[in-house]
Amino acid sequence: MEDIEFFDICEKEQTAATPFLEQEKDDDDSVTDQFWNVANQPNGKGHKIGEKSEEENKIRSKDASEGVGEDSDSSGEIQERHMNNGNNNNNKTMKYADRVQILNLRRNLNQLDNIAKEKDLTIEKAREELSACQLRIEMLTKERECTETKIEEEKEAGNTAAIFRLQAMHRRLCAELGNEKDLESKIALMLKENVYEMWQIEIEQGKFGSLRERLEQDEEELERQCKERAEQRIQKEKTAAQLAEQKQQVGKKKEMEAWEAYERRHQKVVEDAHRNHEKAVQFLKKSMSRIRQKEAKEELKTQEHMEKRMQAVLSLKNNITSNRETLRTLQVRDKAKALEAKKQEMKMRGAILAEGGNVTKEIFLHKQRVELERQKQEFTEQQKSRKIEIVARILQEEACVEKQKKHQARAEALRSQGKLPDSLKWRIKTWQYIENACEDPARAVLQKSWCTPSACSLVDDKSSSVVDFSEKALQDTIRENDDEEANETLVEPEFTGLWSQECNLYKMPKDETDPKPLGASKMERKIFTENLEKLRSGIIHKQVVSGHEFKGCPFYSKPSLIHFKDFDVGKTYKKKIILINASYSVNFCKLVGVSEHLKDFINIQNLISRGITGHDAQQTCRYWEKLCPSSFDPPGQMSAGMSCEVVVTFKPMINEVLEGKVTFLAQNGSFSIPLQCTIKRCVLALDKELIDFGTHVVGETISRTIILTNRGALGTRFKLQTSAGDNGTCTTAKSSLERMVSPALDGITSEEKASSSPVESSLYENKEQVSPVKTEEVRQTYMLGESQKTENNLGSSHVEQLSQDALITKADLEAENAQSPVEPPPEEEPIEITLGKVTEGEIGPFSSIKLQVIFTPSVPGDVHAEFEIAFDNPNCKPLHFSVIGVSVDVPVWVPNPNVDLKICMYDRLYQDCIIIRSRAKAALRLKFEVCKELSNHMELLPKTGYIQAQSSFSVQLKFLPRHSLPEDAGKYFDTETRVLEVPMTIMIADKTKPIEFIVHAIVTTSDLEISPAEVNFGYCTIYEAVQTTITLTNKSILPQEFGFVGLPEFVDIQPSDGFGTLLPLESLNLDIIFKANKAKEYSFELTCKSEINRQFKLSCKAVGVHPPLELSHSLVKFAATALNDVSTATLYVINAHVSLNRFTHAVPRIGKGEIAPVGPTSFEFLVPEDSPVTIMPSVGTVLPGKKCLIQVYFRPVLSEQLIREEAVQMLCREDAQRTMLKKIHESEMQKRKDETVAGKKDGKKPSFAAFRQPLRVRSSKHAAASSGFEPPKPEEIKTNSEEYIAAQYSLIRNFTGKFERYIIPCFVASGDIDEKIGSENLKYSPYNTLYLELHCPAVAPSVVVTSNNGKNIVNFGEVAVGHRIIKRITIQNISQEQLALGFSILNPNGPFLLVSPVGTLEPGENQFLFISFCPNESKLFFETLDIRSIKATLTLSIIGHGVAPSIACSVEGEVLDMGYVIAKEKVTSTFKIQNTSTLPLRYSIKLESLSQTRDKEQQRLPFFITSPPGRTDFVGTQNYSGLSVFNIFPVEGVIEPGKSQDFTVTFSPDHESLYYSDCLKVVLFGKEIAREIWLKGAARNHMMFVEGGDPLDVPLESLAITSPMSEEAAKGELEEPAKSLLLSLEYIQAETSGTPAVRELKIGAIRTAQFASKKNVEFSLDSLPVLQQKGFTIEPVKGTVDRGQIKCISVSWVPPADFDPDHPLMVAAVLTLKGDIKESYKVLFIARVVCT
Q1: β-pairing verdict for 944-947 and 924-930
Q2: DSSP H/E element including 172
Q3: DSSP code at position 908
Q4: Sign of the CA dihedral with 84 first, then 89, 95, and 96 last
């Protein structure tokens, strides 16, 4: 019933005036409370609704009846209003309000019908419950009567226990019968009330009969009007379709016309391509023939090369064969010689033995004599060769001296003559050729001492450089030979090899190296001596491991070079290097020292070993310290691959470059590490050495920049000036050669003139007479020099060539001057190449400066200039760079030679005006031409024109680029950059040189690309929208406007509704939002138009889905929720699918697929794992026409990863703060120190604080330096660490808020989830998925928990049942306001209790909350405590687990039998108790005999007198001494979970008794008895015992204590009186056969140290024939029992043939035991037959 009531709840949002609203609200509230009561049941099935109690049904029925009464009045009013409105609706169309009123009336009538159905179901349930209750009453009545009968029977039988049990059952049945009768009356009353309410509902339904009929008429009228409107809409759609078809026909006609035009153009293009192909074939054939010829030549060369290689291989093979034969011959010869030498040696041995001499000595002396003769012979030959070399060197020196004299004489002759003959020129050229061919060292000297001159170098050096070159080259050659001879020495040792031997290391005597004291033992001395010998022998020995010898450096250094770069004098620098043992085994490393010149600056310290140390290593280090003393400890032994660290300290005292090495000594040799110390220096460079301005028209001004860069650490001052011999400008109206030569002549100083030869003087005197007209000879001379330079590129430098080629004699110059008139030089030449504003300044370290050079052509021609950048730093060489440019002067020119059309699009016309100017004095005829490749795309108008004298002319340029431009333009168009550069030509009449200008344009497309070209939205439900992203790309490099037009009503494009502007080559993402309005398949196109009216299509597809369920809210916006707080939102899952009629309403389906079945529909929400959102219930089933309540919880928390990262940042900030404080402290200390020093200079005594403070600073410095900070990784921060807690508090206090958005899918499946079989899943379609969007804003809390690492969970853990634990929770107000707190109520009957609530919290105040936990049963408890404030609510989750303690004992059963023991002896037994619970157990062991209530219990009558059902007294015989018979250890303690404890029980009786017993109780936590163990044992005075049989006495001793028998009496009486044993046997007689009766007697011998004379016990049983005659079988009859053993005597009985079943059989026999004494037992056998 509750399921129907729950799913019939209507929506709260419907606010129309209905007669059932009040009842609906009450029902909603009651069902919501009922749902949560059921959801919180322990079974956890929140989506199942259980049965409701009778009281709730009664209350609900009463409320429903009242609601029906109220509905009758309101329904009457609606009926009257509807009747009045219905008369007016027949003649006109219904208004919206009327339609709404009809729908509301239909809904109200449906609600009334539903209530009637509901009430009917309630009545049926009540009747069923009443019948079931009556049936139970009948059953209980019958059971009560049966019980009464049994009680009477047991009373007659006298069975008291059974009577008590049956009476208890009778009372229970009476109580149940009374309860059932009460329940019957309640159900009957409730049924009566429900029937009465049902009658009222039926009366109410009868009132609405006429209203129902009128409502049906109105609905029919409404449906008729809907059909009329549909027909009108269809007519309009047909008209629109006809118009669209007409437009489509017009469009097809236009397309056909465009297609025909395209075909004509295509045919023309094909014909042109065919003609071009024919032309290209001809050229291709020629090219292919040339390629084939070339390939044939290459193939021929390859064959020749292969033949040469084959011949070389054959010759190599022959050489190898001959060499092998030669080697074999030599080996055979050597073997023969060795054999001959052996034979001679054997003969010599025989001769010496025959003479009786010493064979070994004689042979050794003979070998020494032979070796000495060989050495003498080699020495003689070596002396001869040395003499020949000395004589050759002497002759060589004499020849060099003679050559030097000849060259000096030749040079003096040349100087005296004043001119060079032609023969000398040829000799110089020959000398140069010989130098180049022979690669004389003079060439290297020349290349180092000379550099390539610039074009403006001195011309007058030609004559002098020729002579100087030969002299310098000869002198350098002689000097080098002298140096080489000086380095060599002719002194030789008397014997070869003596000087090359290395002196052995000095070995100290053993007495000096023994560091052991005088008192050392012999063993220690021996061990030390062996280690020392090993060390001495292994210092420079080879290292061989596993047969492999180690070769190479024993240690690798990282880094391989110790480099102190850019140091300052006075500062200290440190470098750390790592030495890695690269050898095969353990090695040592010791510092030998550094280079001699570095000892004052370099210090090696802080050697940290990463190797291994030991006793041997310590002794080894002492020896190494003596051998190689140093200022630090050696690293000791280092295994292969181990390393040690060395700190190299460098304190420079001089500003010089230092180079050296650090030498170390290892076990297998020494090694060194190079060390380099470089000072700060300037490293200057230019980005280019030549500035080429290109060609420009006279009158323009162009500027270029050159960058000066300093890559060094030292700055300097620079100055930009013209090079030596350059005036700073090279601007004349002469030719290019004159511009290069003339400034060179002008730059020569008077000192150079004075020091030059007579030929050079004459050249200087006449340099001004060189005519600008007569320069052809000079130009030819220059060209001749260029050709000579090309021929002699392997000879001397460009300076020598220029000097040779520029030799002009005085006579030649006079002749030239006589032929041409002399023109005076111009007074002032125009300046063409100048410098910018920055010509000097300071360039800092690692910086750069831009320098500007300006070119202003004023005269046509070539311009060349050289510039130099000088620096103040003497170590920086000047930098040079050249500047060139060309200026032209034409009668007609274009002021703008580069016409830039900017960016152009295909198929669009662009125009520009080109201005042409003329400097001619007459009119000129111009013809404008466009290259033929672009004749179809570009045009100049007019094509011919006249330009007047000294005026301008305008030409119109038209550019219409077509898509064939890239193929037509060819080389003028760059396909990658899309740049078009077209040369345009202006032909001048009567002029051969045309004027060219270039038209630049960047041609781009106007396409817009839509990616992807087709969009498939997939399946979209009608309750949501699907969004996909497309990329709209502008392929043009111009911005373009776009817009999507003609969008259907179910499509939206954002942003800006699909309109916007695309920047060049920009890609814009657009979101297309599709919202299906009904279930069908969609296929449509979207049109995008550009600003030039181009259209681009986008195809779209989608499938509309109508899911079976719907959500009342698809979007939930939570209120701002504080961290760790919870916000709740409520929504419904509605199943509105009640009919399969698709014509009356929309039905659930996927596209055009099958309609979903009508019936229960299940849902499931899938929430992300790490999200702060919880949905309850997440799974459920909704019946048709019903809805299910869903609650969504939002609880924002801080992630652990964020807290860990904040912790790492806080640690870094703290370290940075400490570092800053340390620096501030150091600066203050330095300031105080300076003040102290200043006070000393002034004669003032510094204060005591000034001396004391620096000490603390040094100590803190040392501490900070010794502790380097390395921030930990976020994963290393533990959740319970202080850093984690501090970071969490910091984030909570500084939390500024966060907004998150989640989309939760809800899967829908047809069927009831409760009816699925096993693990079978319901079939569902992913296309029916619903989506719930959640907006979750989080804010900072006002109250936080500061204890338990800031967690809002109070976990008491596991607590034993009945125990109480109190925990303290600290809360803090982190807001800026005072907060009044309120608390929710905990369960009064629960285990949790809030001890001390808090009223108010001041800003920043901390308060304590105390919560106690006392479980009363073993289960998990959970409650929530809400701490409410004005701003937010802080929820504390309180968890506790009540655990019932449980243990496991190793004692099987309830009895621990200690067995038999000799009186006054002890025996021990061990048992184990294990803690099987999950909490530690505090235990204590108690004995019943030591109980405080034991005295009272002893006053009672014994149990064998009172005859209770079972024995209750477990305490038996006790010791006479008063001491406890049983002792337990340990008595108390704690057992951890899963652990166990061993207990030792000691049994120590002091007299003989068979009834020693006690009760052991295991008490937990001092309250609960967890286990009881009955301890029993027996004591005998003798070593044998008999066990078994029926008891004949009571297990209690007499209160009177009998004195034990004296020893004398015991010795005198070795046989005790006979004791009795009763053994009863029952033979079970069945119908077919019987079962023999079997009993056992146990005979044992006690293991004891007493009675040493008797090792075993003998037993025997007499009267065996009598027993056998009576049917008894006994085995064994006699035997022996060893000490500590037990033997069983088996007695079985089968009745004999003459046995009378009415009279039991009784037979007696005597059992005799012999041990330390003799005992007799009278065994009485009683046998009887029992029938089954």
Answers
A1: antiparallel
A2: helix 160-207
A3: -
A4: positive
Q: Are strands 879-888 and 690-697 parallel, antiparallel or unpaired?
A: parallel
Helix/strand/coil (H/E/C) assignment for every residue in 393-422:
HHHHHHHHHHHHHHHHHHHHHHHHHCCCCH
SS3 389: helix
Q: Report CA torsion sign: 272, 278, 283, 287.
A: positive
pLDDT tens sequence across 941-994? 898 998 888 888 999 999 999 989 989 888 899 988 889 999 998 888 877 778
| Alpha carbon distances (Å) from 471 to 406, 409, 428, 474, 478 | 10, 11, 11, 5, 11
- Whether omega before 1012 lies within 30 degrees of 0, making that bond cis, reads yes
Residue 1069 CB partners (closer than 8 Å, separation 6+):
1029, 1030, 1031, 1032
Contact 1528, 1560 (CB under 8 A): yes
Q: Mean pLDDT, the chain, as a whole number?
A: 76
Burial of 27-62, coded b for 16+ CB within 10 Å and e otherwise, reads bbebbeebbeebbeeeeeebbbbeebeeeebeebbe
The answer to whether the beta carbons of residues 710 and 845 sit under 8 Å apart is yes
Tens digit of each residue's pLDDT (9 = 90 or more) over 1552-1575: 888 888 888 888 887 778 888 888
The residues near 1438 (Cβ < 8 Å, ≥ 6 apart) are 1354, 1356, 1386, 1392, 1411, 1413, 1421, 1422, 1423, 1424, 1425
Please check whether residue 1693 is in contact with residue 1730, taking contact to mean a CB–CB distance below 8 angstroms.
no
Handedness of CA 722, 723, 725, 730 (dihedral sign): negative
Query: CA-CA distance, 1362 to 1391, in Å (whole number)?
Result: 10
CB 169 within 8 A of CB 148: no
Residue of 375, 668, 371 whose CA lies nearest to 498: 375
Q: Which DSSP string do the residues of 1005-1022 spell out, in sequence order?
A: ---EEEESSEEEEEEEET
Q: Are 840 and 721 in contact (CB under 8 A)?
A: no
- Its sign, for the CA torsion 812, 814, 815, 816, is positive
| Cα–Cα distance for residue pair 630/534, rounded to 1 Å | 22
User: Rounded to 5, what percent of the chain is helix, strand, coil?
Assistant: 40, 30, 30
What residues have CB less than 8 Å from 191, skipping those under 6 apart?
A: 123, 126, 127, 130
**Are the C-beta atoms of residues 1310 and 1108 closer than 8 Å to each other?**
yes
Separation between Cα atoms, residue 1235 and residue 1027, nearest integer Å:
75
Between the alpha carbon of residue 1 and those of residues 51, 846, 940, 1542, the distances in Å are 8, 90, 96, 60
CA distance 807 to 760: 9
For tokens 């029938």, the residue is: 1731
Contact 1714, 1613 (CB under 8 A): no
- List pLDDT tens digits, range 1582-1615: 888 888 888 776 666 654 444 444 444 444 444 5
List pLDDT tens digits, range 457-501: 333 333 333 334 333 443 444 444 444 433 434 444 444 443 443
Instruction: Quote the CA–CA distance of 94 and 103 in Å, as a whole number.
Output: 13
Amino acid letter at 688?
Answer: K
Nearest to 745 by CA among 723, 726, 720: 726
Integer Cα distance of 482 and 484 in angstroms:
5
Please work out, in degrees rounded to the nearest 5, the angle formed at the alpha carbon of residue 433 by the alpha carbons of 432 and 438: 100
At residue 1107, φ and ψ (nearest 5 deg) are -70, 160
**Residue whose entry in the numeric block shows the structure tokens 């050597």:** 334
The dihedral formed by the CA atoms of 889, 892, 895 and 898, expressed in degrees to the nearest 10: -90
The H or E element that residue 1529 is part of is: strand 1526-1529
DSSP for 705-770?
EEEEEE-SS--EEEEEEEPTT--S----SS-HHHHHHHHHHHT--HHHHHHS-HHHHHHHHTGGG-
b/e string for 1445-1459 if b means 16 or more Cβ within 10 A?
Answer: bebebebeeeebebb
CB atoms within 10 A of CB 1548: 22
